Amino acid sequence: MKILIRKELMQILKPFFWNRKTGTKRSKISILGLLFLFIFIMLVVSSYFFLQAYTFFELMGLPNYDLYFSSFSFISTILSVFMSNLLLYNAMYVSKDNDLLLSSPIKPFQILISRLFPSFLFNFILTVFEIVPVFVVYLIKVNYDFINLLIILLKMTILIMLLPIFSLSISLIFVFIIGLILSKVRRKNVIQIILTVIFSVFYSAFFNIAARNTELVFSVMEKLESIFNSYLFYFGLLGKFLSLNTGISILYILSDIFITVFMLVVILYLMHKTFFKMMNFKAKEKKVKFNNNLIKVQKVKYALFRIENFRFIKNAIYFLNCGFGVVIMLIGAVAVCFTGGIIKNIPYISILTYIGVIMMLLSMTNISSASVSIEGNAIYISKTLPVKIFSILKSKIVVHLMYSLIPLTFLIISAIVFLKISLLDSVFLVLISILYTFFIAQLGLINDLKHGFTDWINETVAVKQNSSVMISISESLFPSIFITAFSFIIPLLTESVSMLLLIICSFLVVLLVIFNLTFYFYLKKNGEKLYLDL
Amino acid sequence: MLKINHLTKKYGNKIAVDDLTLHINKGEIYGFIGHNGAGKSTTIKACVGILDFDYGEIEINGFSIKTNPIECKKQIAYIPDNPDVYSFMSGIDYLNFISDVFKVSLEERKEKINKYADMFEMTYALPNNTSTYSHGMKQKLVILSALVHSPKLIIMDEPFVGLDPKASFLLKKIMNEMTENGCSFFFSTHVLEVAQKLCDRVAIIKEGKLIKSGTMQEVTGDESLENVFLELSENMQV
Predict the structure, then answer these.
(1) What is the CATH class of B2-234?
(2) Which of A422, B52, B174, B182 is in the most buried spot, having the most CB atoms within 10 Å?
(3) Residues of A with CB below 8 A from B126's CB?
């Protein structure tokens, strides 16, 4: 068991300490750099939760701490479940070393438990960065003495220990259902994507609509409270435990601990009993008879594009992890239609703020940053084809651009119309957004060529544990956060705000053009060698 | 057809291929034999343009793989030891993709796909996703994709691994037929009996160095290829 868990941990942690491409140990600076990037990304998640928690508190009106903690425990659980679901499914049933381990003298139950480890670790880290800001907001808003502070911190610790295990149990239930009951469904990946999109829409809609309609918020909150006291009583009990300081609250947490452990034991038992069956189950293929109509001719460029496009859309892990920004931008486009009036009245907001936010949303789409690694061992196919490697790289960029620029178009139109942006500002918005899309696409590809690897054990590793993806997200998020934050300081720096904004936007355009040209020529000169070296 | 001149490839301090020179003629079946880690796959990957090399030259029909890789790749097909194909496509989609890249006309690809898919009994499987294929089926698909664009040189790394006996027989038959039309084959194998029956010429490599090459008669004489290989590579008296 120790050996298996060590193997799983090595799989997750090795990219941080070893350069997979050269097979050499990373330098200390490199390791610290990657760690910093990882923490930076997690802090972005934290700040998002902080804002949500703060908004929730403002919307609550009268303090209802039970509801506050129940809601955020629920949201944290759901996010953890959706983000680790596919990771868990692939780790359990689709890993390349399943045959090796099952043919070894190792109990299948031990393999099962060891496979849970990466998901549990991921859930735990995510929970820490989600829950701590919720408690920080709570501590900002309420009065407490030193003893109460210690109690609150203790409760926070208990919650952080408990939620990842509960999330894991829920994830396992999903995995079990997907694997067993839905195994007859061919397009499981599509269902995963649809469910995630629906969740995201409802989640975003609540906070967007709530900003306009407080009556609606109160009625929704009343309903939520009744749901947490009935169907989702697990979270209702958590809320009561976390907000009360009396000894009675121990009963609530003991109940939740019992539920968590009971669920985990039951689901593990069921999965243990069906492990072999689930691993070897093959979904029924739709019977299609071969005929000559299936033989088609396409131009080379389109054939290359089609491969890259299919590689992206037919892989739920790749899509959800690297293409989630597509969904967020579309949601953003709709959200702006309803909240435009509120947004443009925020103090100190300017075109630079809009640009910064759009850049942030664009950073969530990093398709190109895993586009080479995801090829896996089949990379030899592209290398042996009579096409220029640069053409293959271009087709990867085109896929990234297509899935970024289409939702971006909707978002920009929505922003221009509902935020009533002037003509000049609109020109800058369009130019900088498009240039930044190209920037992210090329930067991501360069990162994957330099840091990527193709010898992964399951696709999740190529996407989630790929330092190229992490570096790309950080490199594109950081400037966007800086620009957004800086935009609020501009009125404090000068009275000639318009002039300064014009200069900054012009400078951004020029800078992005230079970066894009540099990246383009770098890819043209070095892309082939980097690709062939993989 | 294929000229490998003084090929040298190093991985750090280890010399994987050391000053290897081989020439494969048009219409020839050339076997490449050696123990595990001898440098066979390194040589093959260098020939198909997957691997860069340190010294030497590889030419395919007069074009250098280093300076003119596209022209070289237009004339060759590569069948790897591990038949990894795109798991998100059906077999027919994969064949269409390869045919598109090699610019095979619709009529030609229809003729070739139907012919070889029937031969290898893969017709029924072509509309299915390759993720549902067994190892042998993937191997057959890769062979089909190599044959569909009528290459002048087919380079194979242990092509008979994973093939059922009938498919192995068919592959050998196709190899003999295609050589009559001027196609050359360069392949590595551990199945020495097949190499002895099939190959016109053979090269034996040990620790990156060529230790013997020539026609089957020149290399083996009256002995079996297995005995010759064991004697040469392990200095064993059999």
Answers:
(1) alpha beta
(2) B174
(3) 290, 294
